[in-house]
Amino acid sequence: MTRQRTLLYAGFALCLIFYAASARAGECLSDCMHAHNCWKMYGGASQIYCSGTLSLCQEQCRQSNQEKAYGAIAYSAKDKGAGWSYGWNSESKAEQVALDNCSKHGSQCKVIVWYRDSCGAVVADGDIVTWGQASAKRTASQSALDKCIKAGGKKCAVETAQCSQN
């Protein structure tokens, strides 16, 4: 294979890598690559030409997404008010935002569950309030329902289920 063809295939492979990565990392990767001037135009199409920077940008975006991976759910059993948060860089910030949101709907809000890179759910039956945490809303909800029933709930209902990232 000629050197030009090898470079063309390498550029195409990098574009595919970038496309797959950008689908996961959103605009972060694109913004980072543009900031490092790692785009060139080839026949009307832009392509990545500095693979070392691609790795750097992927790592920066991965860390940025991990740092914004906290969420929380607050709930008021008295009046069934709920509030939640997601995409925060700390447990305390996620909890505070959830409490603030809950206070708009309930008078005795308490943080019931916080989660990182996962989902949480709150289930209630009167004064019985339980929570679940898992990688998916459905699993978190089922866990909370099971706990509610085990605690003696007869009419357990999922009040809310949320995940730590939008």
Number of individual domains? 2
What is the average of the pLDDT values? 78
Strand segment count: 8
What's the overall geometry? elongated
**Beta-strand content bin:** 25-35%
Strand order of the largest sheet: 4-3-5
Question: Residue share in helices?
Answer: 40-55%
Task: Give the CA-CA distance, first to last residue.
Answer: 45 Å
Order of helices and strands: HHEEHEEHEEEHE
| Structural class by SSE content | alpha+beta
Rg on CA atoms, Å: 23 Å
Query: Can you summarize the main beta sheet?
Result: 3 strands, antiparallel
Structure description:
Helix 1 packs across helix 2 (27-35), helix 1 runs parallel beside helix 3 (51-67) and helix 2 (27-35) crosses helix 3. Helices cover 46% and strands 31% of the residues. A hairpin with a 2-residue loop joins strand 1 and strand 2. The N and C termini lie far apart (45 Å). It has a three-stranded antiparallel β-sheet with strand order 4-3-5, with helices on one face. Strands 7-6-8 form a three-stranded antiparallel β-sheet. It is built from five helices and eight strands. It has 166 residues and is α+β, with helices and mostly antiparallel strands. It is elongated, with a radius of gyration of 23 Å. The chain has two domains: 3-67, no CATH class; 70-163, no CATH class. It has helices at 3-25, 27-35, 51-67, 91-103, 137-150, and strands spanning 39-42, 45-48, 70-76, 81-88, 110-116, 119-125, 128-134, 157-163. The model is unreliable at 5-26 (pLDDT under 50).
